[in-house]
Write a structure and sequence with these properties.
The complex is a heterodimer of chains A (107) and B (211). Chain A has 4 helices and 3 strands; from the N terminus they run H-E-H-H-E-H-E. Chain A has 107 residues and is an alpha+beta fold. Chain A has a domain of 73 residues: Ribosomal Protein L30, Chain: A (2-Layer Sandwich). Chain A is globular and about 35 Å long. Chain B has 211 residues and is mainly alpha-helical. Chain B has one domain. In chain B, strand 1 and strand 2 form a beta hairpin. In chain B, helix 5 crosses helix 6 and helix 6 runs antiparallel to helix 8. Chain B is globular, with a radius of gyration of 20 Å. The chains are: A alpha+beta (107), B mainly alpha (211). At the A-B interface, helix 2, helix 4 and strand 3 of A face helix 5, helix 6 and helix 8 of B.
Chain lengths: 107, 211
């Protein structure tokens, strides 16, 4: 993702969200997962927006996942049945994000 | 000169673009739609397969079934980025294409068409482009898809590549200032760089207005 200037406004929403909620939100049981990969086109703010608007993640959770994609190259954004993962991968593709379907534990 | 998106009192979103910016935007949206249709073998109506599938002619139905069974793999590098393989496992990837590719293409083409309609209704010259929240989602996705195509044409592969492209462009300008050659060779990529920057800026400004 292209690096942008950090926001002037640190945001007043979602401050009650514990940082650890990423784990509980994302890692529900299931053998399949949807993985989003870093790319040089999608803006950081756009990726965060997609995570918020599609998955309903809070600002903090979405930002944390977006940073994981940006810095580590990829992040698991959902887990569950194969249908669930396929639906989520298709949604990510509809937004132009690079996403793949993976068997949990293989990535 | 373009002005960023902002939220208006009536809760719609608006930006200001001049006539040239609007026509460039409409043109790249049209070209992206044309590229998707040509590469994936989708006709102008977009539903030739569906009509064939309901045909009285059993041969046409069979053709449609086979065509539906094997969705065309994108061959253009930009279209491959818009419709990436969902798995390294080729079987899984083709199953996913069967399931998702037509819907994805329909969605992307509808977004691009909507952006062209929004630009048309805003009139030809310099003026406001007004959209509601539902249209802003289509606008974000379409701007992104066009950026993906332009990025492919600019050869952007990794983070930071655009900065390198801009740097090379500036070096090129300095060299030309020193010894003007008057060739048109760099004009093409200069335009792509400028359009990519305009679209990135517009998308970022829409995201800020929505936040």
């Amino acid at each position: 993702m292209p690096v942008e200037l950090s926001r002037a406004d640190p945001g007043t929403e979602s401050l009650t969200d514990p940082a650890g909620s990423v784990q509980t939100t994302v890692e529900t049981d299931g053998p399949w997962c949807a993985v989003v990969w870093n790319d040089p086109v999608n803006l950081m703010s756009y990726v965060e927006f997609v995570f918020r608007s599609y998955f309903g993640f809070s600002h903090l959770v979405a930002e944390q996942l977006m940073m994981q994609v940006h810095e580590e190259g990829s992040a698991v954004v959902s887990r569950g049945s194969r249908e669930r993962a396929e639906t989520d991968v298709q949604a990510m593709h509809s937004f132009g994000l690079q996403a793949t379907l993976e068997k949990a534990g293989e990535n | 000169m373009a002005h960023a998106f902002r939220r208006r009192a009536d809760s719609t979103l608006a930006c200001r673009l001049d006539g040239e910016e609007k026509s460039i935007l409409a043109q790249v949206a049209q070209e992206t739609a044309d590229l998707i249709r040509a590469d994936l073998g989708i006709d102008g109506d977009g539903d030739v397969l569906r009509r064939a599938a309901q045909s009285e002619d059993p041969l046409r139905r069979l053709e449609a079934e086979f065509a539906g069974r094997d969705p065309r793999e994108p061959s253009d590098s930009a279209v491959r980025r818009l419709f990436p393989a969902a798995s390294e496992d080729p079987e899984l990837a083709i199953e996913y294409r069967r399931l998702a590719q037509q819907d994805l293409a329909d969605g992307k083409l509808a977004d691009l068409r909507l952006v062209m309609q929004i630009l048309d209704r805003s009139g030809g010259g310099h003026g406001e482009v007004v959209i509601d929240d539902a249209e802003s989602m289509a606008m974000l996705r379409a701007l992104n898809d066009v950026r993906i195509v332009l990025a492919d044409r600019l050869g952007l592969r990794r983070d930071g590549d655009f900065d390198t492209v801009r740097m090379l462009q500036q070096i090129g300008e300095k060299v030309e200032e020193a010894e003007p050659v008057g060739d048109d060779e760099h004009v093409g990529s200069d335009i792509v760089i400028a359009v990519y920057e305009l679209l990135s800026w517009l998308q970022e400004s829409l995201l800020r207005a929505l936040d």
